[in-house]
Automatic annotation (TrEMBL):
Organism field: Cylindrobasidium torrendii FP15055 ss-10
PANTHER family per record: GLYCOGEN PHOSPHORYLASE (PTHR11468), GLYCOGEN PHOSPHORYLASE, LIVER FORM (PTHR11468:SF3)
EC category: transferase
Family: Belongs to the glycogen phosphorylase family.
Modified residues (N6-(pyridoxal phosphate)lysine): K687
E.C. code: 2.4.1.1
Name recorded for this polypeptide: Alpha-1,4 glucan phosphorylase
Keyword entries, A-Z: Allosteric enzyme, Carbohydrate metabolism, Cytoplasm, Glycosyltransferase, Pyridoxal phosphate, Transferase
Pfam families, A to Z: Phosphorylase (PF00343)
InterPro entries tied to this protein: Glycg_phsphrylas, Glyco_trans_35, Pyridoxal_P_attach_site
Length: 840
């Protein structure tokens, strides 16, 4: 119906209401207005940082107007909404992305230009929002971009860490040093504090069952802290739809504890408030390992409780019966980190809404969905029962009750079907026996969810046949499915590789506003593989991107890079399962081989520049040694006159989303070489291929599906397959063969390292020892075939025409890996939500 104006004269309001700034003149006015008022600065002494701030505030105004319209539309239409719960959102920078999604980058560029600034310089002023570790956090960011672009009513919920992932420094000896990332030190124009949106969150205290014939309990006492909302606008691409990412900040419920203060206990009073601030102070920097720290569990509960309270408050505004929750809310768990929403929702429904246990359980299990991102045993979350009992006494009771009631039907069936199958019962329990007992979060997430998915076909199969096998037998296979990961082509092609984006639009004769949202259209490039002029343009773009990176490295590190070499890139978190070691050992092998060649032979060698970047978890000793080895090998080979023009090596410090945006478009080849069965999906593999880089990879994760899409002839596969891995590990353990016998080529590499060629050999010994004994990640098993695969890359690169064709075909066939496809799969087959476009 017609809107009612709250007060005053409708015409006065309408005349005064401002629309977005969409032409260069009004954009310029808005930027200058922000210089004068928001920044309180004079135009004549404006520096680049100020110009960035003013441009960002102007773009933000446009986002806010769209955000308001979108949220109003959601309130009016009351569609079912989905909430993406992730402890990590690795957003990177915002300004460029926002201008592109608004379709206003050219206008802003022109405006900034006329004001005497360079847009590229402005963009460089922005700090990355690095509230994540790696793939899991970046996936969440891509999914937000796609949700808004597809006009879906999806909000993200996370934490507003005062410090993001640590800044990585590399000492001259190759040591990784960690420094804090105070990303909020400068004003952050991309968040809106919502001090009025806040919830009280309880910890500790006592939980007492009422024992009045209901399952209710009272949870009282303990400590309460306040969760305060900060909203981040998420613009869709070429649409008004602008979604919300709500991040929670913790603070004390009342600044000081007046009692202790008056009693003269000033420190104690401040201490209490410090512990409240501590909850959202820092992102835990571990990927793939859990540490069982109390503060981490506090973060998880603080965030899930605040997010759920917020969802339920919004739901209650609809005036629907509480049992309708699954018709209006879908909650997606990004890994097990938010699993506490399951007992928290049960607590609200049972203790506060007074529902029967079974009714509450039905609501919960029709609302929650769980995505698993790993099958590595050390990465599966477990929390000690005593810790959980202490911090969250009521939730611990509920988890014990879920274990009893939810599993009981099945346990009886199991008992009948497999009498005395005690092992099975013990395997499936939410509680792992031991000292102490532990809560298995993946089991809780699984039985509390409507559907469970893995992130690539192979990984989803492994979830079904290994870690959750018993639950597949319990609940049927249809609950367990797959959504192969994807990436947003906005950031990972249009934004990071504008030249390629322009070439694609020109060639397809289709505006990017079309193909960026319908990525299968890239197939239209296929006929042009036979067009020599097009191939030249394609190759020229890659060359320019190499030069852009070289300029960046020169400016930041003072190093000169040979841009006429093949660029070979491995960028990801440092981890033994990702096998950066295999890569660096391969580089040393290449160096030894080159050194042994005559100058004549060397002339036939194709020059190669190898790039590494990535952070190691601060406590990950072996990964840090790997960095040391890479840096010290680089120090030797980059100055060896015999080889430096043919092989050079760089470890680029402080890997980030922004660095990835510069590196990915340069690559001829990139490495995704995990031990088969260990990399759930991988997503940078998709980014490289979308930008016309080819892969060297193992038959693992999404590499497999990429090869299916782009053609196996365009991927350099090597190594053992997943089914062989267990047997090989068994062999290593029980029938060890000396390295010299097993893999002579690798033995020579080890000798070189041990000879002190790369500095004190003792430093590397713990790393080499893991390979010599045990070799859990099968370096020795895959080394020879890895070297062969690299030789095939060299050979293929000699035929440059054919190589460029491969590159074009690869990009052309990457449509499947748009995160738009993923998000529509979640919307249709999981959440059951529909687009809710603005103004319709
Ligand atoms: O998730 C990654 C997977 O390794 C990768 O294969 C996949 O493509 C990507 C997206 O699905 N997992 C990942 O990044 N995990 C973490 O960063 C992570 C962070 C924290 C914890 C565990 C894992 N933790 O327990 O604290």
């Amino acid at each position: 119906g017609k809107e009612k104006w709250p007060r005053g004269d409708e015409k006065t309001w309408k005349d005064a209401i401002r629309g977005p700034d969409t032409d260069t003149t009004s954009i310029t006015k808005s930027v200058v207005n922000h210089v004068q008022t928001s920044l309180a600065r004079q135009a004549y002494n404006l520096d680049t940082s100020g110009a960035y701030q003013a441009a960002a505030l102007s773009v933000r105004d446009n986002l806010i107007l769209n955000w308001n319209d979108t949220q109003l539309q959601y309130t009016r239409k009351a569609p079912k909404r989905a909430y993406y719960l992730s402890l990590e959102f690795l957003m990177g920078r915002t300004l460029d992305n926002a201008m592109l999604n608004l379709g206003l980058k050219d206008n802003y560029k022109e405006s900034v230009d006329k004001l005497g600034f360079n847009m590229e310089d402005l963009l460089e002023q922005e700090r990355d929002a690095a509230l994540g570790n790696g793939g899991l956090g970046r996936l969440a960011a891509c999914y937000l971009d796609s949700s808004a672009s597809q006009e879906l009513p999806v909000w993200g919920y996370g934490l507003r860490y005062r410090y993001g992932i640590f800044q990585q420094l590399i000492s001259p000896e190759g040591q990784q040093l960690e420094a804090p990332d105070p990303w909020l030190e400068m004003q952050n124009p991309w968040e809106l504090p919502r001090l009025d949106v806040n919830y009280e969150i309880r910890f500790y205290g006592q939980a007492e069952r009422l024992n009045d014939g209901t399952p209710r309990a009272h949870w009282t006492g303990g400590q309460e802290v306040l969760a305060v909302a900060y909203d981040v606008m998420i613009p869709g691409c070429y649409t008004k739809s602008t979604n919300n990412l709500r991040l929670w900040e913790s603070k004390p419920k009342r600044g000081f504890d007046l009692n202790s203060f008056n009693a003269g206990n000033y420190e104690g009073a401040v201490g209490e408030s410090n512990s409240a601030f501590a909850i959202t102070s820092v992102l835990y920097p571990n990927d793939q390992t859990t540490f069982g720290k109390e503060l981490r569990l506090k973060q998880q509960y603080f965030w899930t409780a605040a997010s759920l309270a917020d969802m339920i408050r919004r739901f209650k505004n609809l005036g629907k019966p509480i049992t309708d929750i699954p018709d209006y809310i879908a909650i997606q768990l990004n890994d097990t980190h938010p699993t506490l929403v399951i007992p928290e929702l049960m607590r609200i429904l049972v203790d506060e809404e007074d529902l029967d246990w079974d009714v509450a359980w039905k609501i919960t299990t029709n609302t929650v969905f769980y995505t698993n991102h790993t099958v590595l045993p050390e990465a599966l979350e477990k929390w000690p029962v005593p810790l959980m009992e202490h911090l969250l006494p009521r939730h611990m009771q509920i988890i014990f009750d879920i274990n009893m009631y939810a599993l009981s039907h099945f346990l009886q069936t199991v008992e009948r079907k497999f009498p005395n199958d005690r092992d099975r019962l013990a395997r499936m329990s939410l509680i792992e026996e031991g000292y102490p007992q532990q809560v298995r979060m993946a089991h809780l997430a699984c039985i509390g969810s409507k559907k469970v998915n893995g992130v690539a076909e192979l990984h989803s199969d492994l979830v079904r046949t290994t870690i959750l096998k018993d639950f597949v037998e319990l609940e049927g296979i249809s609950k367990f499915s797959n959504v192969t990961n994807g990436i947003t082509p906005r950031r990972w092609l249009d934004q990071c590789n504008p030249e390629l984006s322009a070439l694609i639009s020109k060639t397809l004769k289709v505006d990017k506003s079309v193909w960026l949202k319908d990525l299968d259209r890239l197939e239209g490039l296929l006929p042009f593989t036979e067009d020599a002029a097009f191939r030249e343009e394609w190759a020229a773009v890659k060359q320019h991107n190499k030069e852009r990176l070289a300029a960046h490295v020169k400016a930041t590190l003072g190093l000169d890079i040979n841009t006429h070499a093949m660029f070979d890139v491995q960028i990801k978190r440092l981890h033994e399962y990702k096998r950066q070691t295999l890569n660096i050992l391969g580089v040393i092998h290449r160096y030894i081989t080159l050194k042994a060649m005559s100058p004549e032979e060397r002339k036939k060698v194709n020059p190669r520049v190898v790039f590494f970047a990535g952070k190691a978890a601060p406590g990950y000793y072996i990964a840090k040694i790997t960095i040391r080895l890479i840096v010290n090998v680089a120090n030797i080979i980059n100055v060896d006159p015999d080889t430096k023009d043919l092989l050079s090596l760089y470890f680029l410090p402080d890997y980030s989303v922004s660095l990835a945006e510069i590196l990915i478009p340069t690559s001829d080849i990139s490495q995704h070489i995990s031990t088969a069965g260990t990399e759930a999906s991988g997503t940078s593999n998709m980014k490289f291929c979308l930008n016309g880089g080819l892969l060297v990879g193992t038959v693992d994760g999404a590499n497999i599906e990429i090869a299916e899409s782009v053609g196996e002839e365009n991927v350099f596969f090597f190594g053992h397959l997943t089914p062989a891995v267990e047997d090989l590990r068994h062999e290593h353990r029980y029938h060890p063969v000396p390295l010299e016998q097993k893999c002579p080529a690798l033995a020579r590499v080890f000798e070189k390292i041990s000879s002190g060629a790369f500095g004190d050999a003792g430093v590397y010994e713990p790393l080499l020892a893991t390979i010599r004994t045990g070799d859990y990640y099968l370096i020795t098993e895959d080394f020879d075939s890895y070297i062969q695969a690299l030789a095939m890359v060299d050979e293929a690169y000699l035929d440059r025409t054919e190589w460029v064709k491969k590159s074009i075909r690869t990009t052309a066939r990457m449509g499947k890996f748009s995160s738009d496809r993923c998000i529509m799969e979640y919307a249709d087959s999981y959440w059951n939500i529909e687009p809710c476009p603005v103004g319709k």
